[in-house]
Amino acid sequence: xxxxxxxxxxxxxxxxxxxxxxxxxxxxxxxxxxxxxxxxxxxxxxxxxxxxxxxxxxxxxxxxxxxxxxxxxxxxxxxxxxxxxxxxxxxxxxxxxxxxxxxxxxxxxxxxxxxxxxxxxxxxxxxxxxxxxxxxxxxxxxxxxxxxxxxxxxxxxxxxxxxxxxxxxxxxxxxxxxxxxxxxxxxxxxxxxxxxxxxxxxxxxxxxxxxxxxxxxxxxxxxxxxxxxxxxxxxxxxxxxxxxxxxxxxxxxxxxxxxxxxxxxxxxxxxxxxxxxxxxxxxxxxxxxxxxxxxxxxxxxxxxxxxxxxxxxxxxxxxxxxxxxxxxxxxxxxxxxxxxxxxxxxxxxxxxxxxxxxxxx
Length: 361
Hints:
The chain has 11 helices and 13 strands. A 7-stranded parallel sheet has the order 3-2-1-4-5-6-11, sandwiched between helices. Strands 7-10 form a two-stranded parallel sheet. About 40% of the residues lie in helices and about 15% in strands. The protein has 2 domains: about 5-195 and about 245-270, 3-Layer(aba) Sandwich (Rossmann fold), CATH 3.40.50; about 200-240 and about 275-325 and about 340-360, no CATH class. By secondary structure, it is of the alpha/beta class. It has helices at about 15-25, 40-50, 80-85, 105-125, 165-185, 210-225, 245-255, 275-285, 305-310, 330-335, 345-360; strands spanning about 5-10, 30-35, 65, 90-95, 135-140, 190-195, 195-200, 230-235, 240, 245, 265-270, 275, 290-295. Helix 1 crosses helix 7 (about 245-255), helix 4 runs parallel beside helix 5 and helix 8 crosses helix 11 (about 345-360).
């Protein structure tokens, strides 16, 4: 058995699926979860695991959950609890992040996504045993508005004009916080960049409503209220989305904890992207709507219904006209040389499941 696995932001989408898989293989797992007004951390973690279909209660004996505060010294935890968490070598995964993106939220974004990483590293370095590893879970979209292949290396910080939003900028800067500690303080750390994580490639089950599913959800509500309408969106049908199924992501993370020799920066992305046209077709095959993707259409030319749809796409629309390319050397050679790629069929299956689930609710 490998190191103990410690995960902050443990009740998030990817983190919770990762934990479910770890528990299925009898790993000892510590989940750091922030309490909220309704539930304590244990209840939040158990609820999330239940929602994603983890029903094996016997596995929970290997899971400890602690309340923590990302920005507080020592996570706001008691020293005895921290010594318990770090009682032997650990693989520490920093998943915690703010998914906000707008300028009005930039202070909160920076605190969570940059200062939070700095604080995690300080806590890790203070309590972790020698040989422990720190994994920072970033995003492949820290690439910003790059026009060349985004390589598995560090990139310098840049002005907001080089990014689509403050989320991307904050993740780039957080990566460089990790880089600084690697080179100045000998931090044993790695950066994992994820592209857009979607549902399960086999079952089609989707437990996230970000990205293409947020768009599908908004079209669903308007299509059911105004069936048969044509809705135009300023999207290039030939632009692409880099989608990676959650089951692939979990498989890759499981490989990480069992490998000792790794490059410092690793991309968890798909090798082949899916065209917007395919996503549109999948939605239109299910819903009573005629979606038209037209990159040349101006906002002032949209009708009232189309403007309402567009208003709800403030984040999604920023990624609707991209053709990003990511280096996949580590996946090709080390993590998953024979990996399955997402297909138009699997995307269609996910959208069908997602929309069906909305209609049931």
